[in-house]
Amino acid sequence: MTTIYIPRDSGALALGADKVAKAVEAELAARGIEAKIVRTGSRGLYWLEPMVEVKTATGRVAYGPVRASDVASLFDADFLVGDKHEKSLGKPEEIPFLARQTRLTFARCGIIDPVSLDDYRALGGLVGLEKAVSMAPLDIVATVTESGLRGRGGAGFPTGIKWKTVHDAPGERKYVVCNADEGDSGTFADRMIMEGDPFVLIEGMAIAGIATGATKGYIYIRSEYPHAVATMNAAIDVARGAGVLGPRVLGSAHAFDMEVRVGAGAYVCGEETSLLNSLEGKRGVVRAKPPLPALQGLFGKPTVVNNVISLASVPIILDKGAAHYKDFGMGRSRGTIPIQIAGNVKHGGLFEAAFGMTLGEIVDEIGEGTASGRPVKAVQVGGPLGAYFPRALFDTPFDYEAFAAKDGLIGHAGIVVFDDSADMLSQARFAMEFCAVESCGKCTPCRIGSTRGVETLDRIGAGIEPEANLALVSDLCNTMKFGSLCALGGFTPYPVMSAITHFPDDFAPRAHKEAAE
Length: 517
Ligand SMILES: Cc1cc2nc3c(=O)[nH]c(=O)nc-3n(C[C@H](O)[C@H](O)[C@H](O)COP(=O)(O)O)c2cc1C
Ligand code: SF4
Prior knowledge:
Blueprint: E1 2-7, H1 10-14, H2 17-31, E2 35-40, E3 52-56, E4 59-63, H3 71-76, E5 88-90, H4 96-99, H5 117-122, H6 127-133, H7 137-147, H8 159-168, E6 175-180, H9 189-196, H10 198-212, E7 216-221, H11 226-241, E8 257-262, H12 272-279, E9 303-307, H13 308-312, H14 314-320, H15 322-326, E10 329-330, E11 333-334, E12 336-343, E13 349-354, H16 359-366, E14 376-381, E15 388-390, H17 400-405, E16 414-419, H18 424-438, H19 444-447, H20 449-461, H21 466-483, H22 487-491, H23 493-502, H24 509-516
Parallel strand pairs: 1-2, 6-7, 6-9, 7-8, 12-16
Antiparallel strand pairs: 1-3, 3-4, 4-5, 10-11, 12-13, 14-15, 14-16
């Protein structure tokens, strides 16, 4: 029977995927054709969503972006056997945006039915967990350490070392907490994998549990992700029913189970200690460290807190071995990184590649410049706490250390593109305002400093003592950077100072007087 694949990822749904599915169903019924419709995740080529695929004798053929109004003509053009139509894209894997990627973590995303364990197994799923259940926990930890995997949530801390601390910590109960708060601007990798391949996250969490002695996991998902919540819950039920989760994981002596918890929409609740407070039902306020969550985390017990992508990258490491994963990348940034290209960009989407591509390659060649067609002015990398990079720094390779050397950060690997109409003083002000709004209030440099930062930038904008006020902003940034308890206050200086350093013209009083006139 013919199979038609239509995504049900949030991005595709926002662009009308459900309407397309309904139109396809109606057309099949009207023409008396029998076909199976499989709802998938997204392949991550968002400018082509909804991207519809059909299984033909020579592989899958894609069409997009498909609107409900295109469906009748697709049938007329015999798209069910892969024939040409104005929306033809050819074989999806040959579309340059996909062909240039190295998909390790996202290998199945957009291809399979997300809640079909059979689909998951058919494309290599559960091989990593099957290996893990027969390994000594410390050997699993050693494999993850050897792979060079570093946390994809922002700080880039080596995952294996974190797991070793939890493994070694005494505790009759331990936890694995998956951070799916994904608050960074322009990021959607966590959402995409939870909606498109939830079993890979379940598998990664189960492996983390076995490696560290944790028997219970929680996935903390932001409330703005209802489709991810639904898909994860459905997949957890399937996994439990199939014995992947439960008192005997895959028939072994290891117990591991998990639940989804939904956050209430505070950026700071993505910070791991704030997240733990929120999970415990308390206000989302940052905890002082030490103690590390690895030693005293959820309910005071040893806890692994890892980002979705960190955990979802573990199954392939166990499956193919540490050396295979480590072979990709550069320097101390090993493996692949799912780069999320967003903002004012022509080809926005998810691009998984080995570390090492330059920022210029990503923006100009992969993203193909701005959607507006105007020149690229700046790119913010790493979310709202990341630096603005000008074109002059486009030769920076995507690598934790290389970005740090240029006073930037990779963070969760979101990049947001701005064209030459962006005003960097406004962006700097926005960074301070964001910090003021989202501050948990625990420490003074962040709580008070961010508000003073907004006021001082406003004075610069109004042309009041610009030089003295710029010096004041720089001084304030220094205090926030070194005096804040967590990275919200500590990293807000990155976007602010990078805007001032790389785009000084936007802070010159003349520019604003002219703009106001
Ligand atoms: C203000 C703030 C927000 C954060 N938001 C997130 C988030 O949304 N998702 C995430 O995985 N990590 C976030 N982090 C980083 C976490 O504190 C923590 O480092 C991470 O979850 C650890 O997982 P990893 O080692 O796998 O990266 C945030 C940190 C700060 C300071
Ligand atoms: S830096 Fe801001 S968010 Fe972080 S602990 Fe201090 S007040 Fe809270």
